[in-house]
Amino acid sequence: MSFSLKDQVVIDKARELLSEAGVWDVETDLTSLIDCYLERRCKDRARDEFMLAVHERCNRIPLGHIVGTVDFDGLPLTVGTGVFIPRPHSQVIHKWLENEYQTPPGAVVLDLCSGSGAIGLAIAKRRPDLKVTCVEYDDVAFQYLTRNIYRLANWAIKADALKADLRDWQAFSQFNGSVALIVANPPYVPERQEILPEWEEHHPYASVYSGDDGLDLTRLIIKQAKQLLQSEGWLVIEHGESQGESVRTLFLESGFSLVRTIIDEDISDTTGSSVITVGCKLI
């Protein structure tokens, strides 16, 4: 098998790194990685695996669970069965941060219900000066979160991981009154609502549904935010388009100011709208 000069340079560097890491069978592992990412040796096998993947997708297995990665804001995140696959819709959060709110340098940022870490890591990529902590409670999701954090550290993208239950107020005591920004894409589908099988059947239940109206976890996040945010700190929560009025009411009842709901048609698609509600803790 012949490779271009650029490929050969990368392969030689990979061999060196694998050897330094103590991998016990460098050449076998290197061959497998080349076969997966650079060039398939057996075209018949490649075609067979391609059709297996197609049939899985026809069974409505989420694409990310099939291929094992998903691109979010230019980040190649590792995902798989048992973790929620981030959707492009969440990028409305980053558009809002860039266009409307400049987080102060060195500020503390929490990404709650982080899952694979997409939102928090994208913030860390765009603003390496911020102190980003991604918070997740589910065991499987937390494994993907930490894996992505370690993986993207090779791109100088830095974030911390915290395994904590949002109901455990003590677990967040270190952040009380010190957080400048809280972002969250919590589960927000009402339990009786029918949705596409990719989410209804093939995603973890707790990553999709949240009580009769879909807002149980949103209520909890808003309560936590009041304790964690500093004065003039901001809370940003993603939710369904039909929940806008309800979420704004929850913000206002908890004393948030400058509350508004943002719908981004450019990121919305046939699976749903890209929607966030934002609010500021002024005192």
Description:
This protein has helices at residues 5-20, 26-37, 43-58, 63-67, 92-99, 118-126, 139-152, 197-200, 216-228, 244-253, and strands at 69-72, 75-78, 108-112, 131-136, 160-163, 179-184, 229-238, 257-269, 272-281. The chain is α/β, with parallel strands linked by helices. The strands form two sheets. A seven-stranded mixed beta sheet has the order 5-4-3-6-7-9-8, sandwiched between helices. Helix 1 (5-20) packs across helix 2. It is globular and about 65 Å long. The chain starts with a helix and ends with a strand. InterPro entries: DNA_methylase_N6_adenine_CS, HemK-like, N5-glutamine_MTase, SAM-dependent_MTases_sf, Small_mtfrase_dom.
Large-scale geometry: globular
What is the CATH homologous superfamily assignment of the largest domain? Vaccinia Virus protein VP39
Q: The CATH topology of the largest domain, please?
A: Rossmann fold
Assigned CATH class of the largest domain:
Alpha Beta
Domain Methyltransferase small: 105-193
Protein name: peptide chain release factor N(5)-glutamine methyltransferase
Pfam family, one: MTS
EC number: 2.1.1.297
Topology:
Elements: H1 5-20, H2 26-37, H3 43-58, H4 63-67, E1 69-72, E2 75-78, H5 92-99, E3 108-112, H6 118-126, E4 131-136, H7 139-152, E5 160-163, E6 179-184, H8 197-200, H9 216-228, E7 229-238, H10 244-253, E8 257-269, E9 272-281
Parallel strand pairs: 3-4, 3-6, 4-5, 6-7
Antiparallel strand pairs: 1-2, 7-9, 8-9
Helix pairs in contact: 1-2
Describe the structure concisely:
Helices cover 38% and strands 22% of the residues. The protein has helices spanning 5-20, 26-37, 43-58, 63-67, 92-99, 118-126, 139-152, 197-200, 216-228, 244-253; strands at residues 69-72, 75-78, 108-112, 131-136, 160-163, 179-184, 229-238, 257-269, 272-281. This is peptide chain release factor N(5)-glutamine methyltransferase.
